[in-house]
Amino acid sequence: MRRTLLIVSIVVVLVTVFAGRVLLLIAASGTPNALTDLRPIGVEHRVAIIFGAGLAPDGTPSPLLNDRLVAGEELWRRGIVDRLLMTGDNSTTGHNEPSAMRRAAIARGVDPDVIALDYGGRRTWDSCRRARVIFGVRHAVVVSNDFHRARTIVVCRAAGISVDGAVGTSTQGYSLAQRTSWQARELAASWRGVIDAWIHHPQTAVGGPAVDIYDPDAVRRSLAPHDR
Question: For residue 10, what pLDDT is reported?
Fold first, then answer.
């Protein structure tokens, strides 16, 4: 009896820890790798949604975030997308992910007029839902890292966006400790993704007026003064 209870307890723990992650991976399976499987866009517009991933102490994008930015910029250079929507956290003074992302991309030669900033992307659901509701994104490529890729696909689809492809940049070059930490955090966040996508679509933390992402003047007006 004791052995049976132990086995049941182990199974319950494993399901609790891993089931959310597995559900997202299954739901995201089959999504094309945007850098290798998608052709340049034709008549339809397509946006690369680049998710924030923290800043370095000097206020520049963290290495993890920079990987995402470089991948998004490559999508634009290849004509796979025609706009870059950079979304991240700007909820505290001194931590402005979208602004840092924009500066880094422009420094590498990206046309400022193709970059829109979402300052209200405090978490994945907010970024996806605001992309659809505020910026009017219909077709997108989601750009993140390998551990976060499945959640961005599933959540953005649930938010009403047609996810044509995805990029999950490899984290193999990072230390084992870093990769373990990111994977552990993603296991916990996966259940939040499951709830957001399939159980309850919450209100976004930040609202705001609509922005036509294909109107450079409208995008410019939506920027904070220091980003114009």
Answer: 54
The identity of residue 129, as a single letter, is R
Nearest to 143 by CA among 45, 190, 75, 214: 75
Nearest to 146 by CA among 177, 122, 182: 182
- Residue 51: closest CA among 180, 178, 219, 186: 186
pLDDT digits (tens, 9 = 90+) for 205-216: 898 999 999 999
8 A C-beta contact, residue 164 and residue 46: yes
- CB–CB of 205/127 below 8 Å? no
List, for residues 108-161, the tens digit of each pLDDT value: 999 999 999 999 999 999 999 999 999 999 999 999 999 999 999 999 999 999
Q: Give the Cα separation of 79 and 101 in Å (integer).
A: 20
**Neighbouring C-beta atoms of residue 98, cutoff 10 Å:** 25
Report the length, in residues, of the chain.
228
Determine the Cα–Cα distance for residues 197 and 181; give it in Å rounded to an integer: 24
Q: In what order do the strands lie in the sheet with 139-145?
A: 115-118, 83-87, 47-51, 139-145, 162-169
Residue 220 parent element (H or E): helix 216-222
